[in-house]
Specification:
It contains 4 helices and no strands. By secondary structure, it is mainly alpha-helical.
Length: 78
């Protein structure tokens, strides 16, 4: 399964819009445009298809944690 497939499946499963994904990536200071997202979600045979790199997927997953759980607290468990 490719990174593009993972992104597509997460978007559908979590009912995320392109705006939501841009906001999630912004939570980890990673900027992406809707046009770039559109290229990631296209079929592989489309001329504007762009493979989803590891960096985009990693930042999306890290941002998704913050989006769902909230920011990490500074309290440490002793």
């Amino acid at each position: 399964m490719s990174n593009n497939d993972i992104m597509k499946k997460l978007r559908v499963a979590l009912k995320l819009t392109d705006d939501d994904i841009v906001k999630i990536l912004a939570l980890v200071d990673f900027r992406v445009t809707k046009t770039e997202l559109s290229a990631i979600f296209r079929k592989e045979d489309h001329p504007n298809f762009k493979p989803c790199g590891d960096q985009i997927l990693r930042n999306f997953l890290n941002g998704l944690i913050i989006y769902k759980r909230g920011p990490k607290s500074d309290k440490t468990v002793k």
